[in-house]
Task: inverse folding
């Protein structure tokens, strides 16, 4: 499977709450290089949303830049440092590696400050146990993981 395949074949992508993309013109994709955007970036591209992709994996970001829209920005930076200095986006999509799920869940307020319309955060069922998820929709991804989605 190539990055180009992801963009033309939705069946190769991970599940994503695409209804959250409605009305969005800009997106911030954090941990964007994971699976070359399979879980969120390909859906955002298909929806015609302009995106900024942030990750520390320069090799994957460079590969993504070859296939994703020319209007997209690809930023080599620490996600948390970038988030402290950037502006706001209609959609903030955070799909961290499993080891960072808890940290990302605990930084909900940071993602919320960056979002004008929607936040979508990937996590595991095990990670979200015990957290107050009031006003957050829990959307199944697969048998181990979920998307958490909320409006700011």
Result:
């Amino acid at each position: 499977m190539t990055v180009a395949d992801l963009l033309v074949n939705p069946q190769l992508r991970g599940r994503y709450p695409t209804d959250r993309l409605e009305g969005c013109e800009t997106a911030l994709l954090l941990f964007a290089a994971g699976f070359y955007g399979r879980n969120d970036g390909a859906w955002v591209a298909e929806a015609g949303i302009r995106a900024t992709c942030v990750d520390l994996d320069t090799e994957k970001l460079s590969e993504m830049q070859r296939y994703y829209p020319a209007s997209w920005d690809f930023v080599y930076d620490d996600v948390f440092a970038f988030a402290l200095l950037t502006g706001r986006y209609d959609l903030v999509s955070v799909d961290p590696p499993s080891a960072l799920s808890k940290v990302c869940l605990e930084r909900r307020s940071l993602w919320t400050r960056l979002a004008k319309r929607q936040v979508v955060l990937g996590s595991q069922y095990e990670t979200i146990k015990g957290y107050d998820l009031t006003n957050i929709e829990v959307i199944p991804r697969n048998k181990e993981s979920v998307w958490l989605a909320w409006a700011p």
